[in-house]
Amino acid sequence: MLFRTVRELIDLAESQGKKISEIMIEQEMLVTKKSREEIIGQMEKNLQVMESAVEKGLNGVTSHSGLTGGDAVLLQKYIEKGNFLSGEFLLDAVSKAVATNEVNAAMGMICATPTAGSAGVVPGTLFAVKNKLNPTREQMINFLFTSGAFGFVVANNAFISGAAGGCQAEVGSAAGMAAAAIVEMAGGTPSQCADAMAITLKNMLGLVCDPVAGLVEVPCVKRNAMGAANAMVAADMALAGIVSKIPCDEVIDAMYRVGRAMPQSLRETAQGGLAATPTGKRLAQEIFGTPQKK
Amino acid sequence: MKFRSVFDIIGPVMIGPSSSHTAGAARIGRVARNVFGRQPKWAHVHLYGSFAETYRGHGTDVAIVGGLLDYDTFDERIIQAMEIAAEQGLEVKFFEEKEVPEHPNTARLVIGDDEGELELVGLSIGGGKIEIDEINGFKLKLTGENPAIIVVNNDRFGCIASVANVLATYEINIGHMEVSRKEKGKLALMVLETDETVDQEVMDAISKLPNILQVARIVE
After folding, report:
1. Binary contact (B9, A152; C-beta < 8 A)
2. Domain named ACT: which ranges (chain B) (predicted)?
3. What local confidence, expressed as pLDDT, does residue B88 receive?
């Protein structure tokens, strides 16, 4: 194993003058004994799945429950009108993140990044910044390896599932991973990648997992939207030279401790938070006929 | 390090909506089927923790049945798994357990047919990754940090040596190994934790050995 922490990852990349994506590929070769071509080929396939999911979502999908779908389309139409306030690439990232999660909610095919519930953030931001940075296919694949490197550290030092650590572990991790990968693609340093990840995750700390009716729909789709927005803004902050006062590894550790302190009702049991609101409970009743929880 | 590969993070490619409750659930079902060696006629699925509370919303039930039908996480037939199982004569019952498990996403599968039965406890630990905790009441002492395979064999001399021999040929080092059997001379199983990933070619080589009945990966 070449690295276990963000610090080790950054030191390796900077001392060898390599990109984080390259360190991730080297570690994968070391651990799995697979060839570089095989590993890159597999990531290329994942990229294709992500691309198809974004495309499908932008054409409009609706979930079985009817709770989610169509919002990606609304956003694209809104962007086309040109009267938006925040920013074109930001909104494009948001709409593509929403598109992916709408496809996921509709039991469509997606690539988990790092989970299915948080699968929108990484591809959403990737396919938005693509229009600004005009990356090669190889650079797009590297975006996924960089995301994976940061997610790998989080998964092994904290958690990436809502049932274990709340939404901060899922969308929080995904947004941090995306922010770091955007920075690398935009030409930032490995340290700036870590700062972007840290800034993002700091702003997702404490986010609970409270799916209405236990479905990966409300509020998951909109959490992916804001995860993408968070990642885009944090990437810009890091590229501007803003440094995270708390190092990335310590932010990950804080996320772990916050997750451990979270009650079970806020960890994907559909018993607390938005799931326990009057409307949340009514929706569950309408969908299943009976409350999910007896 | 429970997550070893970048594809544990960027992946799996899967049918939504949840990597732990859908993809992980499908994988647990599929491992149970592979260890059993054939499609069972019936399955009793006991769900614990978050699995018990939200399985309907996440399609956990459908995904486990899909796994029992040997579908991978990205197989679109998972959506119709309940109907297909019914058509193929696989009867499935679900039980929502109140007991608080050590891991929030735990499933206990008891599957069988006229010939035999298998009990397996699987944990879905996030991002679609799973761990097998128990097989036929036999608690596996796996770290979950290394790849592991299970081999079901006739309890005969030389079986363990022949499996170890295949792994040696492919330069795979065994880090930890457990063997168990129900009765002398009948069915036995061995669980091997390895330093290197055991790929399909090696799995096929083991399954061709005499007296080997099933080979399945329990930790990727």
Report:
1. yes
2. 148-220
3. 97
* C-beta atoms of B5 and A107 within 8 A: no
For residue B115, the distance in angstroms to the closest alpha carbon of chain A comes to: 35
| Tokens (6 digits) for A98 | 């929403």
In this predicted model, what pLDDT tens digit does every residue of B137-164 receive, in sequence order?
A: 888 877 777 889 999 899 999 999 999 9
Is the pLDDT at A289 greater than 90, yes or no? no
Structure tokens at A205: 């700390």
Q: Number of residue pairs across A and B with CB atoms under 8 Å?
A: 177
Q: Where are the domains of chain A?
A: 6-288
Q: What is the C-alpha to C-alpha distance for residues B113 and A126, in angstroms, rounded to an integer?
A: 48
Q: What is the complex's ipTM, to 2 decimals?
A: 0.96
CATH number among 3.40.50, 1.10.287, 2.40.128, 1.10.4100, domain A6-288: 1.10.4100
Q: What share of chain B is helix, strand, coil (3-state, %, to 5)?
A: 30, 35, 35
Q: Which candidate from B13, B56, B104 shows the least CB-CB separation from A46?
A: B13
Mean pLDDT of chain A: 96
8 A C-beta contact, residue B147 and residue B218: no
For residue A290, what pLDDT is reported?
58
DSSP H helices in B69-173: 81-87, 159-169
Across the interface, whether the CB atoms of A107 and B128 are under 8 A apart is answered no
Identify any residues that bridge with B150 across adjacent strands, giving them in sequence order.
B191, B216
Contact A217, B17 (CB under 8 A): yes
- Give the pLDDT confidence of A200-232 residue by residue, as tens digits: 999 999 999 999 998 999 999 999 999 999 999
pLDDT > 70? residue A265: yes
Distance CA A271, CA A284 (A): 11
